[in-house]
Amino acid sequence: MNFSSEKTTEIQRRIKDFFVYLFSALLIGAACGIIGALFAKSIGFVTGLRETNDFIIYLLPLGGLVSVALYKLTKTEGIGTLRVLESARGESKTPILLLPVIFAASVITHLFGGSAGKEGAALQIGGAVAQSVAVITRADEKKRSVYTVCGMAALFSAVFGTPVGACIFALEVVFTGKVISFAVLPVFVSSIVAHIISVAFGVSPERFEISHVPDFGIEILLKTFAVAIIVAAVSAAFCFLLHRGENLFEKLIKNSFIRIFAGGCIIVVLTLVFGTDYNGGGIAVIERIFEEGNALPQAFLLKIIFTVITVSAGYRGGEIVPSLFIGSTLGAVLSPLLGMPTEFGAAVGMIAFFSGATNCPLAAAVLSTELFGTDGFVLFVASAFAARAFSWKINLYNR
Fold it and tell me: What predicted TM-score, i.e. pTM, was given to this entire model?
């Protein structure tokens, strides 16, 4: 077979691009693995410090002032996960200075007891790392976009220990409804490399054990759908409140220093009234559900209130870990009413809430196997797709 010179040149270009993507993916994965491990260890350390020193919560308003000052000094105020998503779609660029700022601001939030997670910071840090690699390799707009998705997946993977779910999530949340074939391999490589490195540095992947998974059947499928639909409605309400809460706080208190200080004071008061379960991400509460098989009926609602106030006031972190908290506690409360095992209901709630809040059912389905194992996979898939259908287009990342 004879190839024209144009076709030969095209093949050479594709081969060159393949190795450029592969090299950059490895570089991004390695960098994100190291930074992600440091970030996860830092969050774990300050969380332990707060939990053993109750007085630290009183310093949350002052910590908020430091957080706002960092953003103002680096001129990154107002830049967050939405900017990273825009960067991944080629619509803008993520400033490299966002990396140290969001790292420090998230540590501040967790140290002093704001209700937030890690994934928002992880996506932003990953995006900033990717931008650095794009500058070093002089990447064009197309490569820069793919590198950003690589960074998002890699940091998420390093922090949570879910490499496949992180890969699917980054692709799904950026390229909604599209299949970008040339991005799949580099994103997967970055995610796997980051996971391997973070585990080597001692970061333990998030895993939860379900003592009893019901056998598949029509009855349990219908019950799973019921939990997923209720959870989806709550996830839509949560996202709506987050977006409206930010607008309301900005409208009522225009000065960002006063706004975050006031929000911190409200969280301090709420903590004194309702306890410390709702500070930070809340992984310890989720673990307690799977170990003890119960949750307070009001826990999901209180976590919504704590998180909406924390994020609306301007504290940095993320909403996905709080989402897992809300989903698991709500699922645990609903499951006995439907005759389902509590831990299984909590797991269904987690997956459904993640799917509803992010509008990423494929990622939610894959995450279920990494978090809980393969037992009950069909039911988790059902909950993910049902939640996506009943959460409409309301999610964490649209306004």
Answer: 0.91
